[in-house]
Amino acid sequence: MTDTIWPPDFEKSSESKYIVLVQSLRAAVRSGEMGPGEKLPPVRELAWKLGITPGTVARAYKLAVEEGLLETTVGRGTFVSSGKREEVPEEVSLVAHMASDDLNLRGIRVPDVGQDSIIQGIMRKLGAEGGMGYIDCPTPLKDVAARQAVVRWIGQDRVGRFTEDEVVLGLGAQHTVILTLQACLHGANPIILTEELAFPGVRHAARLLRAQVIGVPMDAEGLRPDKLEEILRQHGGQVLLTAAETHSPTTLRTSLERRREIAEVARRYQLQIIEDDCHTVTRPELPAYRAICPERAWYVSSLTKSVSAAMRFGFVVCAKGQEGAAQQVSQSSFYGLPLPMLDICAELINSGQAEVIRQRVEDRVRKRVQLALNILGHWDVQWRPDVPFIWIRLPRGWRCSTFMLACGNEGIGIKPADEFALPDGPVPNAVRIGLNPDIADREFEVAMRKLSDILSKPPADVDF
Predict the structure, then answer these.
(1) Range of the domain at 63
(2) Same structural domain for residues 50 and 37?
(3) Mean pLDDT of 75-103
(4) Which CATH number goes with the domain that contains 50?
(5) Which end of the chain has less Cβ packing within 10 Å, N or C?
């Protein structure tokens, strides 16, 4: 840190000290005295050197960050901004596209249990009834029936008492998570906390919202409350985005006792909890966070994994008294869901057909899990009978990259642990295998045998 233009001389100005500090920073940067990437002293160190309070320095740094003069990274410090837009890193698409000849075990596809004929029948029924009013833009009044259907679909025991007025709809779970994050996050440097292994959509959402993601260490029950509290003390955080019932990629379920512990930490630190339940197919017995701490927990899910991915029908049950913020985000960003889709999904649920499909999907998932375990069960597999994927810790001699390449050579696509790890986070030597490719059970068994055969033959040139 140089001593000509920067630091400031408070005796020569009648302005507030934080304003003088920002002006001095601005002058030093524009003159070239402080260059891009140059690190500034920590708040307390600079406050002591200048003889002012840490709060004054913190306020000046905050204003300079909002102006784009400085940039800050949790755990690294505050730096002079480069003034350039950060390059967006390449991310693997959330939609698992592959060559048509390859077997796609990367994605979590809802199995075909007759959805096409059921949805087409509903569309014919709605068309015959007429009077649907598909001319004007969606309004909050026009999605009431769909929101009432969501109340029936979720049920009261799962997320605590709520009404349709506390439900906001989105275009699938990923969009609804982003909508909810927009309602919860604030300030120039928002921080999202999540599992140290997380669905890649968390990173995509955080990048869109210019938020920082910090991973919380896990154990066999999911997030560790002690580590969550430690991170909150050290870094702060506004939102915990978590998958307590069905964690992807590990299949873990957080126990009720652990959920209560995490809810208590959230209360102490004024933390909002967004529970992403989109990978759950069954009717869980454990209450969601929304039932445990309704004043600060949001419940997000969709019909994508249990009924139909094509409908893009997601929903959030808002924390008590906070539905207005989510409704405002919804209205400001996309007005509302298309009216035909609202009618189709409401009829799917109200007619009981969505539950028929869900039960068929659950039965198919259980069958596929059993088929996979019959062949792969002697490996280090983490699984649940109600979860449409398994988590395999690779045996000695394999690494994710080489195993993924070996599977690709056999025309099989899998998802390595790298794609779930956060930046600078731990990467276990494991892979996730989706169990619902659109193939017959006999072909599926052949694919599982191929995987088992590959697992049994690690590269010969590996040093043990």
Answers:
(1) 10-80
(2) yes
(3) 64
(4) 1.10.10.10
(5) C
| pLDDT score, position 97 | 53
How would you label 436-457 residue by residue, b for 16+ Cβ within 10 Å and e otherwise? bbeeeeeebeebbebbeebbee
Q: What is the pLDDT of the chain when averaged over all its residues?
A: 90
Domain termination residue (choose one: 300, 334, 352): 352
Same domain, 379 and 250: no
* Bridging pattern class, strands 380-382 and 389-393: antiparallel
Same structural domain, 336 and 446: no
When divided into structural domains, the chain yields a total of 3
Identity of the amino acid at 13: S
In a domain, 94, yes or no: no
| CATH number, domain containing residue 167 | 3.40.640.10
Residues 168 and 20 in one domain: no
DSSP label at 197?
Answer: B
How many C-beta atoms surround the C-beta of residue 363 within 10 A?
A: 12
- 160 φ/ψ sector (left φ>0, alpha ψ -120 to 50, else beta): left
Query: Taking a C-beta distance cutoff of 8 angstroms, is the pair 224, 218 a contact?
Result: yes
Asked if 313 contacts 302 with a C-beta cutoff of 8 angstroms, the reply is yes
Does residue 461 lie within any of the structural domains?
A: no
Specify the DSSP class assigned to residue 104: E
Give yes or no: residues 20 and 130 share one domain.
Answer: no
Residue 90 above 70 pLDDT? no
The arithmetic mean of pLDDT across residues 307-326, rounded, is: 95
> Which stretches of 26-166 are assigned E, i.e. beta strand?
70-73, 77-80, 103-104
What is the reported pTM? 0.81
Which domain-ending residue is among 299, 322, 352?
A: 352
Q: Write the single-letter amino acid at 217.
A: P
Of 58-62, 376-380, 388-392, minimum mean pLDDT range = 58-62
For the ranges 32-36, 297-301, 302-306, 373-377, which has the lowest average pLDDT?
32-36
CA distance 129 to 108: 35
Of the candidates 406, 402, 383, 389, the one whose C-alpha atom is nearest the C-alpha of residue 452 is 406
% of residues, the chain, pLDDT over 70: 92
Average pLDDT on 229-258 reads 95
